[in-house]
Amino acid sequence: MFVIGGCIIVLIAVLVGFTMAGGHVGALVHPSELITIGGSSLGAMIVMAPKQVLLDLLRCMLQLIKGSPYSKQTYVELFGLLGEIARKIRRDGMLALEPMVTDPHNDPLLAKYPRIAKNHHACDFLCGGLSLFLDGINDAEQLTREMQKEIAVIEREHHAAIGVLQKTADALPGFGIVAAVLGIVITMQAIDGPASEIGHKVGAALVGTFLGILLSYGFFAPMASRMELLGEAEITFLRSVMSAIISLSAGESAREVIMRARRVIGTESRPSLSETEALAKEGAAAA
């Protein structure tokens, strides 16, 4: 919602400033300019990026509207899940996790924590990490290397989508100039007409340049920056899970597992120490 609100503020500021200077909003409405700029931008995106990257970009754009899924409540659920996993390992051994690792979508333990279970990347990363030491990998350095490889793949995919949006933002002023040049060509065809008609056509041509610059610096570039921050929030979450898995593989208690995971989290989303201690005590008591 903050992204939508910011876009609305940008638009209102531009329109209010324009009207305060004596302009009429109707003078900025030229669908042909939007079609030229929008169609050219879309075509360029299709040329520069494969289908999967475009789908990732679309998902990222939808996530911009929804906001980051890695809120404080998500970490509370993660800590609760980690506490239960630590309890299960201590009570039944590591092999008790095999049903969750092999079929996470039907696992009753994961189902208790929907913010984790319904998050594709989070769930797959958690189960993938647990499967490593189920397969006998319990060395901390080796676990770290293997999980870092998976994090690198996720980072690469996310940066590819951001790169497409950023390159589109960089190209928009140029597409605006293309629309403006086409408008000038149309103006030249009516050069022997009345001055009012020529002025209208020149104004329409300049709107193309205006739209290209506004869309670039007012919308697309800020959205690319916001997507970068969302990607960093996801990587922080995965690193928190990685720390917890390394702790679990070492046979540490629920409290130690949760505290290790907590240290990686930024202050904005990090549960308080008292909340963390309460979750750790629940896991320890259950164990």
Describe the structure.
With 287 residues, this protein is mostly helical. The chain has one domain. It has twelve helices and no strands. Helix 4 runs parallel beside helix 12 and helix 11 runs antiparallel to helix 12. The longest helix has 55 residues. The radius of gyration is 26 Å and the shape is elongated. The mean pLDDT is 88.
Summary?
The chain is mostly helical and 287 residues long. The protein has helices at 2-20, 31-48, 51-66, 72-92, 98-102, 108-111, 114-117, 120-134, 140-189, 195-249, 254-263, 273-286. The two termini are 41 Å apart.
Element string (H = helix, E = strand): HHHHHHHHHHHH
**Helix content percent band:** over 70%
Provide mean pLDDT, rounded.
88
Q: Any low-confidence stretches, pLDDT <50, length ≥5?
A: none
| Straight-line distance between termini | 41 Å
| Rg over C-alpha atoms, rounded to the nearest angstrom | 26 Å
Strand and helix layout:
Layout: H1 2-20, H2 31-48, H3 51-66, H4 72-92, H5 98-102, H6 108-111, H7 114-117, H8 120-134, H9 140-189, H10 195-249, H11 254-263, H12 273-286
